[in-house]
Fold:
Amino acid sequence: MKMRKWMMVTAVAAMATSLAACGGNNNTNGGNAAATNAPSESTAPAENNGGENTAAETAQITPEDGASLVVWESKDERAFTDAIAKEFTEKYNVPVKIEELSPTDQVTKLSQDGPSGLAADVVLIPHDNLGRAASAQLLLPNDVFEAETVKNNTEASITGASYDGMLYGYPRAAETYALYYNKSLVTEAPKTFDDVIAFGKTFTDKSKNRYGIMWEVGNMYFDYPFIASNGGYIFGDNGTNKDDIGINTDGAIQGLSEFVKLKEVLPIKSGDINPDIKRSLFNSGDLAMDINGPWELAGYKTALGDNLGLVPLPTVSGKTAISLAGFKIFAVNAYTQYPNAAKLYAEFASTKDAQLKLNKLVGSIPTNLEALEDPQIKDDPYVSAFAEQAKNSQPMPSIPEMGNVWSPVNAALPEIWDKGVDPKTAMDKAAQQIKDLNNGASQ
Structure:
């Protein structure tokens, strides 16, 4: 397969965020999977011509005679899956069986069950797991619907659905995080982290367990704006170059100096912050602002009602805050007996209408460009706030080496926050650890 020209897009691209609940859990799911044998040539669909299908050719793809599909799906999104599977069966006369499996577990199970023919035909995975699956040759490229997928979805979601210059995924939803705030406590949402500090000085009282702002300060997923907003990054070349590690660049260190300043208004150890603690404090009115993802939206709306506000992240050192983004993507098992039917399902379940249905039934935010402009999305103040932040988000790298990043960085951040270790010293150490792990993994 040839390299795709469109893969030269920048990592910071217009995108939307998902309200599906995988969220920051993605940060534990990197790493290498054991390589499996490549599928035999008989598993490849006849329509595979390197992605050069015309619209007319695409329209002519039909399911194989006698095709039936198994789809792995998240339990939390079952309402959507049941509805879309029923519509697919009505249109193509292909039965669809749904099996519930967490998206974060699907690549591991696919590597185990794919070669034996026991895996689902269509899988749903977080995009940062894509490198594991693609490098192990577990997925068929998105070739038949490549042109439509690239045209119809945000650039960042296409980057997230691709590996080594090849489009594999069918994007269906994306997510990042933003700033929740309690309108009864914060009269005007902060524009900068300096504003956050100024407010925190008037509100934070550790003796009363009351804080102006809180987030998981020991978790790179949520700390990424302090690394990236002034020019830091995880891996270079759009997250594809494992040898270009950018967590300790001058820009990253400058941003982390702003991170350190926030200790003044959040004077607690990193280990004393977790989702349950934050949720309890925010719901009770003892936390004014929370950096968090869309998976908390339903609960926060119930707790605060009209007092719940949501805005993009404040600026970091005068620079727009760049958050880390994740995507959920459909992909087709390389060992499926019915590649045509499976590709049709993955495309059918990720169209504009399907993504709007997903938003309505589950709360996810589309990656489809037309869906993002639909009043259903634009007129929702919470959805639109996440979408606005997402315009300044970067996809998590999907190469297998991403699994080597989390532990070193998540060890360095508490050193900086809890012990006052110089950010440069801590991040230099983490970068070297990542380099060593990458080299060991590649040998």
Observations:
- Residues 1-59 have pLDDT under 50 and may be disordered.
